[in-house]
Structure formats: C-alpha cells, structure tokens
Amino acid sequence: MAETGARDLLLEIGTEELPWGAVQEGRKQLHDNLLQILKRERLEHGEIHVFSTPRRLAALVEDLAERQEEYQELVKGPRRDAAFDERGNPTAAAEGFARARGVRVEDLVVRETEKGEFVFAEVRKEGRRTLDILPGLVDEVLRSFSFRKSMRWGEGEFRFARPVRWLVVLYGEEVVPVDFEGLRAGRSSRGHRFLSSGEVEISTPRGYPEALRRARVLADEEERRKAILDGVEEALSSRGLRAVPSGETLDEVVDLVEYPHVLLGRFEERFLELPREVLETAMQEHQRYFPVEDAEGQLAPAFLVVHNGDPAKEEVIRRGHERVLRARLEDASFFYQEDLKRTLEDRLPDLRSVVWQARLGNLYEKSLRLVGLCDEICRSAHLPEETAEKARRAALLCKADLVTSMVVEFTSLQGIMGRIYALAAGEDAETAAAIEEHYLPRFAGDRLPETLPGAVLCLAEKVDNLTGCFGVGLIPSGSEDPYALRRQAVAVLSVAVGKGLHLDFSSLLAAAAERFGFARPDAVAAEVGEFCRQRWRQALLGEGFDYDLVAAVLDLALRDPYEARLRLEALQEARADGRLQRAYTGFERCHNLSSRADVAELDADLLQEEAERNLYSRLTWAQEPLRGYLDAGEYHAALGVLLELAPDIDRFFDEIFVMGEDRRLRENRLALLKMTASLFLEFADFTQVVTEGER
After folding, report:
1. Which residues contact 484 (CB under 8 A, 6 or more apart)?
2. What proportions of the chain, in percent to the nearest 5, are helix, strand and coil?
3. Residues facing residue 110 across a β-bridge
4. Which residues contact 556 (CB under 8 A, 6 or more apart)?
5. I want to staple 437 with a disulfide (CB 3.0 to 4.6 A). Which of 21, 40, 121, 449 is the partner?
6. Residue 126 CB neighbour total at 10 angstroms
7. In what order do the strands lie in the sheet with 299-307?
C-alpha cells in the first residue's frame, strides 16, 4: 500500500425491536456482505466481529487499512499486427489504446492468447483513501440485507426488517460522514430501553461492547447466552430441579433480550394432569419459558422466565408471567377435557370438511388412500398381517386429531395429540405410536419412526404427498418447495433403510397415482420416481459414498431403495479394501469388447483354449451362488463371488486373442465376454464405475 496504518471500523444499525428471526438472519448477512464488499474494494482488514440485540445489528472490523491496495491490471488491446506495422513501429491503433489506458506506447507488451498475439497495457491504479470509500460502502451494506419479511416506513423506498432509527459509523475515533435515508451517522448509540439513561457515546470501535455493557446491553450473543445459562443454574441450584429448554427456545430467547435475567415462576400442580407435551408446548412455543423437571425426570410445577426488565421489580414480573401462563394452561385443560369426550374415530366425518389441497380432495379421502397404501406397502415388503392391521388402523385415524381443539390451538402437537387421544380411547400402543410417527422426520436430522406400523404409515404418507402434488403440478422449483417434497423424498429412503424394508417403490408410486384418478398415472409415477432418484443421489453423496458407485445402483433404487443401499455399501467397502478396482478392470474389458459386436449364442463346444474353458466353467459355477446370495440379501457375499472372477478374466485376456480371423471362434469368445459382463450387471450397473485415476 502507498500508505501504512490501519484503524478499526464500527458500523451499528439501530432499529426498533427486531423479531428474533430477523436478528439471526441479519447477523449472518452483515458479516458475509461486509466481508464480500471489503474484499471487492481491496481493503485489507483483521477479524470481523458481529454484535446483535433486538434493537441493533453491528460490526466491528479490526485493523481496516487506511487505503486500498494498489491495483494492477493487464488490459487487452488490439491485435499485434494491427498495433505495429511491418517494421515494428506503433500504429494509430496502438497509440490510441495506450493513450486511453494512460500508459506510454513503448510500455505496451505483447502476449500470446488462444486467438493469436495481442498487445496489452499494464495499468496501475493507486488505491483510494478508506475514508473516501466508506460512505458509499456503508450505504451498500445497509441496502444489501434481504429479510424474509421487511417493511417500508415514512416516505422512502428503503426496506428493512424494522425501521432504522440511528446509525453509528466510526473509523478509529473519527465519525464517518454517512447520510442515509434521512439519518446522519454519529457516535451516539442507545442503551437498554429501561435500565439506562438512553444515549451512549462510543469513543472508539473497540470500546463499543464495554460502552453498551455499562448501559445494560450485552451486545455479544454468546455473552447473553452464557448469562442466561448462568442465571438458570443460579435459579435452580438449591432446589434440586433442572431446566429442559429446547435448543430452538434458547436460541430465540438469546435474541429477544438485551440484558437477560432469569427468574423462577410456578403454576398449580393440578395442571400436571395435562400431557407433558402440552405443558412444554404452552411454555416454550407460546411463552418462551423453560420447563423444569425434578431429579426423577418428572415435570415440576415450575418454569423459568428470561426477562429484559428491571431486576428490582422481579416479584411483579414473576406474578405477571405466572398469570399469563395460568390463563394459557386453563385453556389447554379445557381443550383437553373437551377433546376426550369424542374418540378419534368419532371425528372421522369431520375430516370431510377439511380440505387437504384444493385439487386433491379432503382429509377423509386422504385417510382412505393411506389405508390402501399401507396394504400395498405391507404386501410389497412381506410384512405380517398384524403389522398391516395396525398400520391400516393408524392410517384411518391419523388425521383425526387435526379437528381437535388442542391441535387447532397448538398446531405443533399434530400427531402427538393423535397418539395421546388414541391411547386414551384404548387403541393398541403401536397403532397410537404410528399416528405420531407418520409425520416423521419433521425436519432434517429429526428422528425416524421406531415402530414398524409407524414406518409403513410414514412411507404411505410421503408417497401420497409426492404423487398427489406432482399430479397437479405442485413441483418444487428453485428454492420453492412449499410442501417440503424434497425432504419427504429423502425420508422415503431413510425410513426404508432404517427399517430394512424391501419394497417395489416404482409399483408403489403407480398404485398411489392410480388412487388419485389422474389421467396418466404412469407418467406421474415416472416423474415422481425420477425426482426421488435425484434426491436420493444427493443424499447418498452427502453421506460420503463415491459418486460413480451411487450412479451404479440408482436405477435399482427405484425398484428397491433398501436393497440398492446395501449393494452400494458392499461396493464402497470393496473399493476401500482395493478389491473392486481389479474386478472392475476385468468387467470393463469384457463389456467394451462385447457391447460393440453382434454376439451370437455361446457354444461351449467351440471353447478350445484352457483359459476360455476355465472362465466359462467359473461363470457357470458363479451364477447359482451369486443369485442365491442376492435372493438372501447377502450382498457382500454376492459381490465377493464376482470379485473372485478377476484372476480368471485376467488369464483369459493374457492368453486368448479374442478378435482372431476365425469368425465362429471370435463370435463365441465375444459371447463368453458378454456372459461375463452380464453377470456383473446383475449386481449393479458397472458401466457407471470409473477407475481410481478418473475419480
């Protein structure tokens, strides 16, 4: 750089109260966008620290250079023969190019390119001062945010998650002159809304966290998280209790407060008669409270509140939260008692008035389709009648809890309340569990169904959703996937593999499409199959399987996803121990020769040489154990049979000249090679496999 030195940069965007999701989105975008812009502007810098609270997003850039790096660029000009005459003297074209680029003609250089020789100018630009760049840079950063929900205010067109009320922009101790949408940047931030006197003067960027801390604002999210966890421990340490917050609730609370304090509240023991899931949902999802349990793991009549108020008024705050939760639990208790007056089966007629999707009918019709699909899956997977009976019963009842008062009020309890109400009505435990499990996995990384009837109903649900949506054109595109079909496609593979279910997936898709009465059910099934195939490919690659081995089993996956996965594991293991490469080399030679020729039927009497007779003998022997192992699901053993053919294939090519002059011998040997390659193809599509050096 022309000048040395660096100063810290502070940018704080002060806002009205941001939703916690906007705080999380904004924190990441501020870091990533600022990093990208600084790189583009050739401004060297140290670490970037991002701070956030419900009322601010801020970035501290350490050691930001005082000037851009010098810029050097090789600019392409005219062709050499146009820039210089036969004697090597510059033409008007060369002189004009040099003048336009601010260099001397004699400084032009000639470079060879793919299109011939051209002249180039080496252009050097001195870096601009950082202070001159910062106003425009800050403006760009402010306009770079993209929130899922944003708003305009006043008369401007600028959009943000909430109105921006102040800006702090400091470069070292100097205020950067930034004017943005009627705001003038300064050094005045804001402290805690209730616990500070208001404005906070920021002297230097690195003093920012401490200045806010004195004003009762913890700008660092991790510092707030630690304060919350420490407060939880302090509130419960002497009471023999422990908090059981979900990770999502803790993340939300961290971004809902600026100066957290934790207090313990209580509710009446009579509410413990409610299902635990109801209590936890009422506390966490609706009020952002932390449930509390005793040493035996039983839910206690207590909860933890993380508040942003005055610690001196905690008793008032406690009573207020207890009053709010009491009202919420009174409602839940009323809904629960009312719901128990009718069984899930009694509610089935109500599903006729609940539309699943405008073009795909109501939930009662969906329930009947699921019953039929459960039968299809159980037949395909050869499951016992007891499992099929439980799956069918669960399929009939699985949507009935959607019309209960509890699920209408607490929508996240769908399936969970179905299980609870089914058990209360005397349904079998596995049938009840299947009602909850058919929604699994609800998100990436979520648990899979534990019961076999639950796995069957889960698969039926996913297949019905996929074929129905594709049949009416509700196909994911780009980032749009409102029905979560990508996740459901991957779930099909996960559930089938997790439960070891062999099923004909293509036939299942065809049966599901038929039940909707689509004009071309076969086309719908084929489209869904290809969609699942591509999603499974990405999922398997994400697990670490080699791309060529995944391609080798993908076609089989549409027939039986679980079997395809097992064959893939066998291939990957054989590659890891080095056996696959040798066997594949033999297959490749056999396939390449035989696939390009018209091959007649093999005549064993024409096998004259020992090497070809020996290979034929080994192939004849290998067919029975190979197919026996495949039928028994012993895929490592089946692949082992093929791998044992490698020495015989190698010997054949070492001793036999395949493409000899005798047409009958040539065609017979090609038939032998085709027989060899075909045996490999019974296990997987080895044409997709590549050698070690090609991967």
Report:
1. none
2. 55, 15, 30
3. 119
4. 563, 564, 567, 684, 685
5. 449
6. 12
7. 242-243, 290-293, 299-307, 261-266
